[in-house]
TrEMBL record:
Belongs to the ALAD family. Catalyzes an early step in the biosynthesis of tetrapyrroles. Binds two molecules of 5-aminolevulinate per subunit, each at a distinct site, and catalyzes their condensation to form porphobilinogen. Its EC number is 4.2.1.24. It comes from Lederbergia ruris. The keyword Lyase applies. Keywords: Heme biosynthesis, Lyase, Porphyrin biosynthesis. Gene3D superfamilies: Aldolase class I (3.20.20.70). This is Delta-aminolevulinic acid dehydratase. Coiled coil: none annotated.
């Protein structure tokens, strides 16, 4: 018998051998954990479509932050859920807005924990769109002015990274200029460079109370059928001064993660979105899947596709599993 063939199984012969040659790894410091902050006191409300994820008030943040830091997670991204909304999203850029106050709360307890501030208007506008609306149309350039005000206010409150998620044309260049003029030249921008108009966002809109009250967001978020458009968006944001690039969602868009990684040399952030989280949680609750195995496999695949960092609601679970070995 001719025995001249490759012996690939040699490198799979034991758990230690497999670990020795493993190409892709998950680490606690790879993750950014989302927090939904509400106004009021003693508020901790589980989000019905996202088991294990809560809207919490400022006075209860310390307990949550203690756990995050103990688990070795280095960054959080803050989403505000204000009590009052208006046509222009005033709460987004108010000096005492919910994200600004939450940022100060983080820095009071853990100055080294990185705060990523989501920079958008949809949670704060009564119409639920990510910009200024006139006659049913989301206005691009008028929206940029408010996004700049929001980013500067967040930086003044102590945010380490500004993460604009609105997908207005020119939002990175406008925010970069605004931050620089306000004296925040060292604050990086984590751009939602490639953000698809996706059905996977449904549970988030419950969590952040940010569903649009009319129409949809297809004029500013991307068509899921498009691939080359993602590269155009990414290159525009790089030219405008972005420091990180987010691809959102992640699981159904790993070809896009790889495309952007191959062409761009900034850190790539995959957003493992709410719908991806909720599907796994629902299947696990029914006993249909092994939650830990599925989560670790899917998040590892995002890193294998080219993500350097992952925004994920699973971050605390994964950090615990990694500590357990």
């Amino acid at each position: 018998m001719d025995m001249n063939f490759d012996r690939h199984r040699r490198l799979r012969s034991s758990a230690n051998m497999r670990a020795l040659v493993r190409e892709t790894h998950l680490r606690a410091e790879d993750f950014i954990y989302p927090l939904f902050i509400v106004e009021g006191k003693q508020q901790k409300q589980e989000i019905s479509s996202m088991p294990g994820i809560y809207q919490i008030s400022l006075d209860l943040m310390k307990q949550e932050l203690d756990e995050i830091v103990q688990l070795g997670i280095k960054a959080v991204i803050l989403f505000g859920v204000p009590e009052e909304k208006d046509e222009c999203g005033t709460g987004a850029y108010h000096d005492h807005g919910i994200v600004q106050e939450a940022t100060r709360e983080v820095k009071k307890h853990y100055p080294e924990l990185l705060v990523v501030a989501d920079t958008c208007l949809c949670e704060y506008t009564d119409h639920g769109h990510c910009g200024v609306v006139k006659d049913g149309e989301v206005l691009n350039d008028e929206s940029l002015q408010l996004l700049v005000k929001t980013s500067v206010s967040q930086a003044q409150a102590g945010a380490d990274i500004i993460a604009p998620s609105n997908m207005m044309d020119g939002f990175v260049t406008a925010i970069r200029r605004g931050l620089d003029e306000a004296g925040f030249k060292e604050i990086p921008i984590m751009s939602y460079a490639v953000k698809y108009s996706s059905a996977f966002y449904g549970p988030f809109r419950e969590a952040a109370n940010s569903a649009p009250q009319f129409g949809d967001r297809k004029t500013y978020q991307m068509d899921p059928a498009n691939r080359l458009e993602a590269l155009r968006e990414a290159h525009s944001d790089i030219e405008e001064g972005a420091d990180f690039l987010i691809i959102k969602p992640a699981l159904s868009y790993m070809d896009i993660i790889r495309d952007v990684k191959n062409e761009c040399h900034l850190p790539i952030v995959a957003y493992n979105v709410s719908g991806e989280y909720s599907m796994v949680k629902a299947a696990a609750a029914n006993g249909w899947i092994d939650e830990k195995a599925i989560v670790l496999e899917s998040l590892t695949s995002m890193k294998r596709a080219g993500a350097d960092l992952i925004i994920s609601y699973f971050a605390k679970d994964v950090a615990k599993w990694l500590q357990e070995g």
